[in-house]
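Lay summary

Proteins are chains of building blocks that fold into shapes. Our project writes down both the chain and a compact code for its shape. Here are two examples, one after the other.
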Amino acid sequence: MSGERKDPPAIIVPQRSLVVLSGPAGAGKSTFALRVIQCHSEEGFRPTMIVSSDQCRALVSDDENNQQANRDTFDLFHYIIFKRMLQNRFTIADSTALQPEARHRLLSLAARHSYHTCLLIFDIPPEICAHRDKQRNRLVGEQVITFHNGLLQRVIQEAPGEGWDQVHILRDEDLSAQIEITRNS
């Protein structure tokens, strides 16, 4: 029946997974990641399981907005993910991951460590992202969100052929989706 609300997709991943969030600024990626951790806090999940490019940028330059620090930011971002994989830790990579090279580098890291990969694509309309952006402390602006939306359309087309173990497209109504983490890999 049309007009019926569907349940959010079921996302089931092994604990030895790299979950990569991809989408425009303001799409709700960081909020989603934090909710996943909170839902699994009784199982020992901690916010440190989220590796955020914004936090890495702040660590290297004291400013989450400093785009001049991107090279160092992503060196640190990938280094932390690498070290977490050496420790067999569940990891959520929180960046836009809108460029193919960014996703391929994460896939390569996961392959090197025999990690399961799950790409979550946040297909959120630009007007919703812009509205959310205006409510944040760290604004990126409508121009960046429009640019990100153009890249997002390519991600939706290209990601299924990139070699991910799982690809899920989350729309605004899917942001309440739960991630179930299984102990078996």
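And here is the second example, written the same way.
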Amino acid sequence: MEGLSRVLWRERELLDALLYRVELEQLVLMSGSARWLARVSQDVEAVLTTLGETELLRAVVADEIGTAVGLAASPTLRALAERSDEPWATILAEHRDALLALTRTIAERADANRALIAAGHRATRATLLAATTGAAALADLQVQEAAYGSALGTSARVVRTSLGDFLR
């Protein structure tokens, strides 16, 4: 149980780091400057990669504990908490509550970022089309669309982790 708790703490730390980066992404988007958008998106991707690796470790540890307490493969955190003795039942329930709160907040921020990205994309398109026509405008538009599209993909992936299944 102690090993699972350590992994859950690590996931909480990573989700907190992810929330920071998603909020930073939001500030960059709100500033209207695309200069740092790619870097912020890369930072989000880096945390997501580490989070994915940690989720694999957590899944292995949770399966081992689940088997030991008579649960089927891929047990939920709720099921593990319900089958555990104190103080682990309380500790696991607290981890679950904290992880749920963090994932909800991240999902809300990612949704807001997607809306900002879409608005920025529309504004850029309208400005470029209104200001000029021809090959140069089209090339600029394609660069902006690529930047916004890349950021949109990053934000959309923020909450697509196996953690959701584990927290059910």
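What can we say about the second shape? The helical segments are 2-31, 37-68, 77-83, 88-131, 135-157, 163-167.
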